[in-house]
Specification:
Helix content: 40-55%
Structural class: mainly alpha
Strand order of the largest sheet: 3-4-5
CATH superfamily: Glycogen Phosphorylase B
Shape: globular
CATH architecture: 3-Layer(aba) Sandwich
Number of domains: 1
Number of strands: 5
Distance between the termini: 61 Å
Strand content: 5-15%
């Protein structure tokens, strides 16, 4: 993406793919290493998760909670929970291997501040339902109902 658009991606964290990615794209990718959530989500930008396999996608929820717009792979488990609007989902839940679709999604958000704000607000609202506090509230409500039924 960086080669075709001139955009620079910053990757937070590290793992088994870190070294090969750095070697394949010298100068095109920024490497922040392990970062605090505050550091990651305080930088204005777009959270892009082109994962080929992401069972849930906790980092996407964190980015959305911070108000950052997200573009997610169709293989990210949380994608339909964060991007529930059909129109937004058709544009910002992207086939994992379709580079042109990823570029189009980023271009669309870059060129339309109103759409960017709409997506940010949408995913931020949905992320609140997926946070720890909401999950605990739901679990406590279920336990409360269970105990009320038990004599």
């Amino acid at each position: 993406m960086a080669q075709r658009t001139g955009r620079r991606a910053v990757i937070h964290g590290d793992g088994p793919l870190g070294r090969p990615l750095r070697a394949a794209a010298p100068g095109l990718l920024g490497w922040a290493g392990w970062s605090t959530p505050e550091d990651m989500w305080s930088t204005p930008g777009i959270f892009v998760c082109p994962s080929f396999r992401e069972a849930f996608g906790r980092s996407a929820v964190e980015a959305a909670s911070s108000g950052m717009p997200v573009i997610l792979s169709d293989r990210t488990g949380v994608a339909p929970m964060l991007i529930r609007d059909r129109d937004l989902a058709s544009r910002f839940i992207v086939p994992a291997h379709d580079i042109d679709a990823w570029l189009a999604a980023v271009d669309e958000l870059d060129s339309d501040p109103d759409l960017r704000r709409r997506l940010s607000d949408h995913v931020s609202d949905n992320a609140r339902r997926l946070g720890t506090e909401a999950s605990l509230d739901g679990a406590l409500a279920a336990l409360d109902q269970l105990f009320r039924r038990t004599p």
